[in-house]
Amino acid sequence: MEQAPISRLISHMKAHRSTMWLATLFSILNKIFDLAPPLLIGAAVDVVVMREKSVLSTYGYTDPKEQLIILSILTVIIWVLESLFEYFYGVLWRNLAQSVQHDFRLDAYSHIQELEMAWFSDQSKGELMSILNDDINQLERFLDKGANELLQVGTTVIVISAIFFYISPTIAIYSVIPIPVIIWGSFRFQSKSPSNPNQNPNPNPPNQPVAKILIPIKILILASQTYQTHQTHQIYRINHSRKSLIR
After folding, report:
1. pLDDT (0 to 100) of residue 200
2. How far apart are CA 150 and CA 89, in angstroms?
3. Of 23-37, 40-54, 224-238, which range is least confident?
């Protein structure tokens, strides 16, 4: 049974696993703090409207002025932490992408050196150079940008879905139901769309030994793009549902 692409990628990154997990942690924390400001805005509206009966009053802060000061302090702390985590994950993912790109290129070149000379007579030299350069560069771009976007989109879906179910399960159900349909439609549209004229016209290219060490990443990038379009609408719905509860 063929191993999943993401599993193959992780198995090739054993030497950099600690950096990968640390960058993953910072990406998730950055997105969690990035989603906090809309909640703080809702809490500030709650203080202005409900005053002594706001949510913060249940924690012992009944004075509206004190509540607003607390919210201001929390806002500063959240923005500082978000900026720090964004810097940390940016540096870690960039270093990881460069290191993995270097390792993959060396592995691919070493693998080519061990092949029989008869194999080269049946292969396109330009295609081999494309694999060593363009394909591995695409993997580097995925680790530099795509992996972080995928993690942040997944974190957004999980956190906002949890908030939706806590505030209003009805809104949560209506928000989650269209997602599988959108994903299915995106994959179906991609499968039905005409192929790129710059790509190999043969839909079933021969199984080349060099290509076996490369990891396909189109599915991961597509999933990231599919969910990213919903982030703004989800944050707006949190504020709208919060205001509805206040009324």
Report:
1. 47
2. 13
3. 224-238
CATH class of 5-197+204-246: mainly alpha
The predicted pLDDT at position 210 comes to 41
Tokens for 68?
């607003």
Q: Which single residue is written with the structure tokens 């950099």?
A: 16
Question: Which contacts (CB < 8 Å, 24+ apart) does range 157-160 have?
Answer: 157/227, 157/230, 159/31, 159/32, 159/35, 160/35, 160/234, 160/235, 160/238
Radius of gyration over every alpha carbon of the chain, rounded to an integer in angstroms: 24
Q: Where are the domains of the chain?
A: 5-197+204-246
| Mean pLDDT rounded to a whole number for the chain | 75
Closest CA to 212 of 7, 1, 6, 8: 8
Residue 51 Rama label (left phi>0; alpha psi -120 to 50; beta): left
Q: Is the pTM of this model over 0.70?
A: no
Q: Of 62, 56, 28, nearest to 42 (Cα)?
A: 56
Q: Lowest mean pLDDT of 25-29, 83-87, 177-181, 221-225, name the range.
A: 221-225
**What is d(CA 154, CA 227) in angstroms, rounded to the nearest whole number?**
8
**DSSP string across 170-185:** HHHHHHHTHHHHHHHH
Q: Which residues contact 210 (CB under 8 A, 6 or more apart)?
A: 108, 111, 112, 128, 131, 132
Percent of all residues in the chain with a pLDDT value above 70, rounded to a whole number: 76
Encoded tokens for 169: 């399960």
